[in-house]
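SAMPLE LOG
Freezer: B-3
Tube label: C17
Construct: single chain, 224 aa
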Amino acid sequence: MSNTQIRNEATMATGTARTVDMKLEVVVIPVSDVDRAKQFYVGLGWRLDVDITKDGPFRVVHLTPPGSQCAILFGEGVTTQEPGSAQGLHLIVSDVDAARAELVDRGIDVNEVFHDVGGLFHHAGEEGRLNGPHPTRRSYGSFASFSDPDGNGWILQEVTTRHPGRVETDTTTFTSSIELAGALRRAAAAHGEHEKRSGQTDGNWPDWYADYIVREHAGTQSPT
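STRUCTURE (predicted):
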């Protein structure tokens, strides 16, 4: 029996298969005016990686949001989608208020922070939106939205604690000092509550902070 047959039989027996990593690398955005779109996304503070023009009506513009492993791509001759048809594109942030304020400072028209009436993922369009962040500031529950000049729709989603299984439990990484600072602030607040509950001053806060941040990142139970 060949190795391929053995792997196929194992897959049929377990219903699962180990595959190669599939990392989302780029999202194609349909735009009508490439230069206008380029100016807009550069104005967001996104890194311009590529702007290449080839013979004929073919141009590729590639930008990456700060801290993102996935980029966007637009241009001429790169998609048959109608300009403005890309909707529900999510940008994950650790502090939705701070992220919104930064974009507003850059001159971007961003809707006020909102949460969904059902308390879960937001509805399509503006249905079921309630003003303000999620009442308990639940991770995944607070949003803000904006659009590019063509109407492609973006959502800022606040994520502070990942659901179990969403990240490697033995790896904790931060993509920027801003993200790390946010984690430290949340750890400090939680440590303060810990001291109130215990009625004692805990001088070993560095270890407590570290444990809290690792657990928060992995989506496991926080220290008490």
